[in-house]
Amino acid sequence: MRNKLLFENKRDHIVHVINAAFMDLDMCTEEFAFTDAPHQSHYTSSPNTIQAIFPQETELYCVADASWKASTKKIGIGWSLHSKKGTLKIQGSVALTPTNSELEAEAIAMKSAVQQLNRLAYTNVLMLGDCAELFRCID
């Protein structure tokens, strides 16, 4: 994703990036299992889709993300709501005034997604994002 953004100025949807990361993890797990223990005929592999790690009761999930370059430049935020099977239901995005940090931009993206889903009367939505620091702050 980083190379595509830097060299082609194209951005993949976050769901595709996460699914690709899980597939890469699964391939690495297979390789290490084969290299480290060739005598074993089976092993536990990682999930190969993002949906495989969801709690069983999850019916909807929302991915929120922000783009932040500097405290003097506008931020871009976006979110998308999906069914458990990955079908896109709705999405939104907007450019906003600059923020002081990437963490603040990510928090605004998550807040915006939650507010929009609340206005549209969606409930019990699993929220996802790519900012571990934000999730540590709200945990």
UniProtKB/TrEMBL annotation:
One of its GO terms (molecular function) is RNA-DNA hybrid ribonuclease activity. It holds the Pfam family RVT_3. Residues 65-138 form the RNase H type-1 domain. InterPro entries: RNaseH_domain, RNaseH_sf. This is RNase H type-1 domain-containing protein. It comes from Brassica carinata. The lineage of its organism: Eukaryota, Viridiplantae, Streptophyta, Embryophyta, Tracheophyta.
